[in-house]
């Protein structure tokens, strides 16, 4: 990530409003670069929030909506940190049981989740529009999978 990328942010348009995300390349340079790249490619446009659990998080970034797919890019090496904590508004990279399997999926925290600290990569945080994230349709059951999920209308890169 170049010095000019350090201040780049993401603009995520949802049906209820616009969410502004500050990336954290200081914590996760590989993951931040991945979100920038995929946003610039339009990868996230019209992708669903397929897994949404009340009081926990909203997960998206899988065009299939199943939670099992990602981009064609290679998986990322884990960038876990204990320098920052998973709290409301934080963006984390979703992964399988393999710590080095993050690809395109991410999640936005509805609440604090210290049990994720040091186990998942923190890649950014919502700095505006969390009230719109709060309105994302919730899933049912223990896994939080959503029928007819809300979608990201468009995700793009902005400079600040």
Give an overview in words:
The chain contains 2 helices and 8 strands. The chain has 160 residues and is mainly β. Strands 3-4-6-5-7-2-1-8 form an 8-stranded antiparallel sheet. The mean pLDDT is 94. Its EC number is 5.2.1.8. This is Peptidyl-prolyl cis-trans isomerase. It holds the Pfam family Pro_isomerase. One of its GO terms (biological process) is protein folding.
Label the structural class. Answer: mainly beta
Give the strand line-up of the largest sheet: 3-4-6-5-7-2-1-8
Distance N to C terminus: 16 Å
Strand content: 25-35%
- Rg is 14 Å
Number of E-state strands: 8
Silhouette: globular
Q: How much helicity do the residues have?
A: 10-25%
Mean pLDDT: 94
Q: Treating each run of at least 4 consecutive H or I residues as one helix, how many helices? A: 2
Q: What is the H-and-E element order? A: EEHEEEEEHE
Stretches where pLDDT is under 50 for at least 5 consecutive residues are none
How is the main sheet built? 8 strands, antiparallel
Task: Please render the helix and strand layout as text.
Blueprint: E1 8-14, E2 17-23, H1 29-40, E3 51-53, E4 57-60, E5 90-93, E6 106-109, E7 121-128, H2 130-133, E8 154-159
Antiparallel strand pairs: 1-2, 1-8, 2-7, 3-4, 4-6, 5-6, 5-7
List keywords for this structure.
EC 5.2.1.8; 27% strand; isomerase; mainly beta; 160 residues; globular; Cyclophilin-type_PPIase; Cyclophilin-type_PPIase_dom; Cyclophilin-like_dom_sf; eight-stranded antiparallel beta sheet
């Amino acid at each position: 990530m170049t010095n000019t990328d350090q201040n780049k942010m993401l603009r995520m348009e949802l049906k209820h409003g616009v969410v502004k995300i500050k990336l954290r390349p200081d914590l996760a340079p590989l993951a931040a670069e991945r979100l920038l790249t995929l946003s610039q490619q339009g990868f996230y446009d019209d992708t669903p929030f397929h897994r949404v659990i009340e009081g926990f998080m909203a997960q998206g970034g899988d065009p299939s909506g199943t939670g099992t797919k990602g981009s064609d890019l290679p998986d990322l090496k884990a960038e876990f940190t204990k320098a920052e904590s998973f709290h409301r508004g934080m963006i984390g990279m979703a992964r399988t049981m393999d710590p080095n399997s993050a690809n395109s999926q991410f999640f936005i925290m509805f609440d604090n989740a210290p049990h994720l600290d040091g186990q998942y990569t923190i890649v950014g945080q919502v700095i505006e529009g969390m009230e719109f994230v709060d309105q994302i349709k919730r899933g049912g059951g223990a896994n939080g999978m959503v029928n007819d999920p809300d979608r990201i209308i468009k995700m793009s890169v902005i400079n600040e």
